[in-house]
Amino acid sequence: MTTLFLLNSCGLPYDRLDGGNGNKVPKKNFKFSNKKNIDIYSFKKNIEIDFFYEVDEIYESDRNFNFIGNHKIKGNGLIQFYENGCVRTMNKKFMNPDPQKIGGRGIIYLQNGILNCDIFSGGYNNKMYVETYKIKIENNKYYFLQTHNLSGNMCYVYVKGEKVPKEYKKYEAIW
User: Fold this and answer.
1) Burial code of 4-14, b = ≥16 C-beta within 10 A, e = fewer?
2) So what's the architecture of 14-169 in CATH?
3) What is the pTM of this model?
4) Nearest partner of 65 among 140, 138, 155, judged by Cα
5) 61, 58, 5, 63: which is closest to 34 by C-alpha?
6) Cβ 119 vs Cβ 105: under 8 Å
7) Distance between CA atoms of 135 and 119, rounded to whole angstroms?
8) Nearest partner of 133 among 113, 151, 155, 166, judged by Cα
9) Which of 76, 85, 74, 128 lies closest to 104, judged by CA?
């Protein structure tokens, strides 16, 4: 089981992009200073990096991934995994192969035997922040539990989607 936790922080460095959609991405030189241990062999065994993973459902959860809300909703998000344990998040409606143009950036790591993921992305309040998730992999589903959400614990369930196109693979995950 892997768990991620959300941490909010003000004033994180980002580039605001124009072009009509107002996307924000971390500055080119942004690096996760908390790169932690990850067993890359186990990671690659459980996640096929040649595929995008799409949000299948989102629901309110307890801290053990159990559904406690009134309903589940579908999502538009997807995640791309890289060989080195880095991740990139995007909305299916706004995709671009270049991570400098669009998408959140993150890193997967083990902490106290629990798989976690920190993702640096933009929010509705025009700020950038790092979200931390606890991850659980079960029956070909990838559960990302966001536990520091103001509206409660939210669980994002990802399933394997389309194959990652070649033009996306030419960009390195160097964050």
Assistant:
1) bbbeeeeebeb
2) Beta Barrel (2.40)
3) 0.79
4) 155
5) 5
6) yes
7) 13
8) 155
9) 128
Neighbours of 49 (CB within 10 A): 14
Token pair 């995008």 is found at: 52
Return d(Cα 12, Cα 128) in angstroms, integer. Answer: 6
- Assign 122 to helix, strand or coil: strand
The closest alpha carbon to 162, from 92, 88, 108, belongs to 92
Tens of pLDDT along the chain (175 residues) come to 433 333 333 344 444 443 345 556 666 666 666 555 566 556 667 788 899 999 999 999 998 999 998 888 888 899 999 888 889 999 998 899 988 888 888 888 888 878 889 888 766 666 777 888 999 999 889 999 997 766 678 999 999 999 999 999 999 888 8
> What would the two tokens of residue 13 be?
């460095």
3-state secondary structure of 28: coil
